[in-house]
Structures are given as structure tokens and as C-alpha cells.
């Protein structure tokens, strides 16, 4: 009985492993050094366990869920029952978290939760705008460099790599 590390093809009485071939070119017969018997070289990553299920890590789903909550709260901020983020309540200056102010108030009496949610709107707009601007400028420079080539391409590459 051959060991798992043996690369020779199985004999007639041996059972092949129960693995599904992921691609047609994963197993390629190759002659050994003497040229006498064929040796089957295969890519172990091309075989997949048929019964294996891919699971996403819990941290990925928790992070994606939290990001979704923050984005939804930022988008729906005007429609949520929040305090005015700029209105001061001088009776609750520096209040700790309570039923009225879930995250408390600042030194001027403004609700910290509503200020954070309305601030997230600005942060999301700035983040999205910077990505879109970078894509537009980078795409335009890439198109110019690819179309004109030569010295223009070299100049663009020097400027962008700096």
C-alpha cells in the first residue's frame, strides 16, 4: 500500500481517493527519471473535498453588520427620533448616559449620539467623494498614459510613483 506522499499512480486493486477534480489539467502524467514508469504529478490544491463547506468568519459578519448599521443610521438620520445635534440643553450639561441621552451630553449640553450620527453623514460623504475623485483622476491618467505612451507615459509614471 503506497503512502500518502507516494506520487505513483494507484494500482488496479487500490481505491482512488474520494476527491473531485477541480480542473482538467490538475493531474498530468510525467515520466520518472529512468523513463520507465509513468509518475502522476498533480496539484493538490486542484482537488477539493466535496463535503467541505466554506464558512465565513464570525468577525467578518459582525463587522459588516456594524458598518451597515452605521451607514443606515447616517442615511436615515433626519428621519430618526434624535435630538437636534446643535441644540444645547443647559439642564443636562455633562450628563451621563440615560434614557433621554443614550451616550450622554457634552460640556455644552448637546446630545452626543445625535452629533455622532449626523457627523457620520459628513464622514461618509467625504470618504466616498475622495474615493470617487481618486478613481476619476487615476483612471484619466491611466487612459492618457496608455494612449500616448512614450515620454508622456514615463512622465506620468514618474509623477505618480513619487
Please describe what this structure looks like.
Helices cover 41% and strands 9% of the residues. The protein is mainly alpha-helical and 162 residues long. A two-stranded antiparallel sheet has the order 1-4. Strands 2-3 form a two-stranded antiparallel ribbon.
Helical residue percent band: 40-55%
Return residue spans where pLDDT drops below 50 for at least 5 consecutive residues.
none
Radius of gyration: 31 Å
Cα-to-Cα separation, first versus last residue: 61 Å
Indicate the structural class: mainly alpha
Read across the widest sheet, the strand sequence of neighbours is 1-4
User: What is the strand tally?
Assistant: 4
Rounded mean pLDDT is 81
The string of secondary-structure elements, in order, is: EEEEHHH
Task: Provide keyphrases for this structure.
two-stranded antiparallel sheet, mainly alpha, 162 residues
Question: Which SSEs are present, and which pair or pack?
Answer:
Blueprint (H helix, E strand, L loop, with lengths): L19 E2 L5 E5 L6 E5 L4 E2 L9 H18 L36 H37 L1 H12 L1
Antiparallel strand pairs: 1-4, 2-3
Write a concise synopsis of the structure shown.
This protein is 41% helix and 9% strand. It starts with 19 loop residues before the first strand and ends with a helix. It has 3 helices and 4 strands.
Amino acid at each position: 500500500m503506497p503512502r500518502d506522499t507516494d506520487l505513483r499512480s494507484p494500482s488496479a486493486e487500490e481505491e482512488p481517493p474520494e476527491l473531485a477534480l477541480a480542473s482538467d489539467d490538475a493531474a498530468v502524467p510525467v515520466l520518472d527519471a529512468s523513463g520507465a514508469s509513468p509518475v502522476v504529478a498533480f496539484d493538490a490544491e486542484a482537488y477539493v473535498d466535496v463535503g467541505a463547506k466554506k464558512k465565513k468568519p464570525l468577525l467578518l459578519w459582525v463587522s459588516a453588520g456594524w458598518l451597515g448599521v452605521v451607514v443606515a443610521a447616517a442615511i436615515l438620520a433626519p428621519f430618526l427620533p434624535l435630538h437636534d445635534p446643535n441644540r444645547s440643553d443647559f439642564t443636562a450639561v455633562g450628563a451621563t448616559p440615560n434614557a433621554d441621552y443614550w451616550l450622554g451630553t457634552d460640556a455644552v449640553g448637546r446630545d452626543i449620539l445625535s452629533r455622532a450620527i449626523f457627523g457620520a453623514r459628513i464622514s461618509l460623504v467625504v470618504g466616498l467623494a475622495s474615493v470617487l475623485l481618486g478613481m476619476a483622476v487615476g483612471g484619466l491618467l491611466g487612459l492618457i498614459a496608455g494612449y500616448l505612451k512614450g515620454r508622456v507615459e514615463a512622465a506620468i509614471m514618474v509623477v505618480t510613483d513619487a
